[in-house]
Amino acid sequence: MGASTETGAVVTRFAPSPTGYLHIGGARTALFNWLFARHHGGKFLLRIEDTDRARSTEPAIAAILDGMRWLGLDWDGDAVYQFARASRHAEVARELLAAGKAYRCYLTPEELTAQREAAKAERRPFRLDSPWRDADPASGPDLPSVVRLKAPTEGDLVIDDKVQGTVTVNAAEIDDFVLLRSDGTPTYMLAVVVDDNDMDVTHVIRGDDHLSNAFRQLALIRALGWREPAYAHVPMIHGPDGGKLSKRHGAMGVDAYRDQLGLLPEAVGNYLLRLGWGHGDDEIISRADAVRWFDLDHVGKSPSRFDFKKLANLNGHYIREANDARLAALVADRLPFAVTPGQLDLLRRAMPSLKPRASDLLELTDNSAFLFRMRPLEMDEAAAALLGGDAPLILALAHAALDASESWDTEALETAVRQVAEDAGVKLGAVAQPLRAALTGRKTSPGIFDVLVLLGREESLGRIADQMAKPD
């Protein structure tokens, strides 16, 4: 039956089912596998478990690959598609049959239901009792059958899990599960074991909802005489209230974190890393440090709670640290018009003023909108309130002072505006606030002198003139 070759190198895998998006829990699993492989200089493999042909879709596969690339989780070699390996899976099942370690079972659905109901009535755990387990293979009827593993019936199965610790299950709890369906197609349990072996996977790192599967897979691995991988079952992610992670808690596709929430991949990656793993008090962890520090010893045993506020704060940090040209390009992609090279350069120059005030790309895009608005600007309610009373007269004074300024830099513009306030006998805010409203159409914006520089002399003076008192 041939065991896999022992390579000595660490090999991990991420094996999503393409029946939907790459959800946030799956992304964390992929990240942990990637980091463990990269930390040990090993391989990180990607396997698409597309055996559910009715639910597996090409758009879902594309979304998974896109999400992986966005998070910077590159995989080694080509992605493996499980369905394409069905003949190999069936071959292994036939080898087990020939070795007497599996059997053809002809129990009907009705007979299986009767056994389950009897176990329920007697208040005992259900364990399959097939008369075909020890029957002469040649005695089977000419009827459809499944192929079942002859699971061990005595002793314990023990897994020294790298996260959960030592976990023991009595062999009596492992039933003779199906390897091949009656139509000859392999089951998930068989396919996973065969693929992990053939891909030389040394460490299976996955959610702890798969822990019960691990014992069935271990029974199959031992029947085949193959090398046993190390297991690490990571606790699930819960919502802020401790309940199951729902869509309102953050159980969305990775693409939604990018497109709908406007988050940066490095922020999402950093947050997922800290969601169940720690390195002292470090919160901001670069990818390079994550590779250097990551281990399984510091993965927590308790479920983690998703915290949107913490994620938003972390993303704000990465927005402030991000390259201005990169942010400009990301914002340009979100604007409702095609950005010209000149406008892209304006965005880049605006980033030092814009990014300290934004926690995500949505805010950054919204805050940059004033740069491209057409005159006359439409005022929001708060901005309109700033333009009443004496504001038009003050704007006229500011327009004259700014128009007379020989230089159009923040220092010269601030000097001019402060002089207007002093001459008018008002505080600086009484001039700056109407200016902000006139220039941006809003009550809040980057520093008013930065706004003036970014808009330039002609556009700034034109916007102020639209709102100031006209001379008689």
TrEMBL record:
Residues in Glutamyl/glutaminyl-tRNA synthetase class Ib catalytic domain copies: 10-312
Subcellular location: Cytoplasm
PROSITE patterns with a match to the protein in the record: AA_TRNA_LIGASE_I
Keywords attached to this entry: Aminoacyl-tRNA synthetase, ATP-binding, Cytoplasm, Ligase, Nucleotide-binding, Protein biosynthesis
Recorded GO MF terms: ATP binding; glutamate-tRNA ligase activity; tRNA binding; zinc ion binding
A Pfam family per the record: tRNA-synt_1c
Catalytic activity: tRNA(Glu) + L-glutamate + ATP = L-glutamyl-tRNA(Glu) + AMP + diphosphate
CDD domains reported for this sequence: GluRS_core (cd00808)
Amino acids binding ATP: 247
GO cellular component terms, A-Z: cytosol
Record GO biological process: glutamyl-tRNA aminoacylation
Ranges where the Aminoacyl-tRNA synthetase class I anticodon-binding domain occurs: 331-466
Stored SUPFAM superfamilies: An anticodon-binding domain of class I aminoacyl-tRNA synthetases, Nucleotidylyl transferase
Sequence motif 'KMSKS' region, location on chain: 244-248
Catalytic activity, EC: 6.1.1.17
Intervals of motif 'HIGH' region: 16-26
Subunit-structure text: Monomer.
PANTHER family: GLUTAMATE--TRNA LIGASE (PTHR43311), GLUTAMATE--TRNA LIGASE, MITOCHONDRIAL-RELATED (PTHR43311:SF2)
Family stated for the protein in its record: Belongs to the class-I aminoacyl-tRNA synthetase family. Glutamate--tRNA ligase type 1 subfamily.
NCBIfam families: gltX_bact
Biological function: Catalyzes the attachment of glutamate to tRNA(Glu) in a two-step reaction: glutamate is first activated by ATP to form Glu-AMP and then transferred to the acceptor end of tRNA(Glu).
Protein name (record): Glutamate--tRNA ligase
Record organism: Sphingomonas gilva
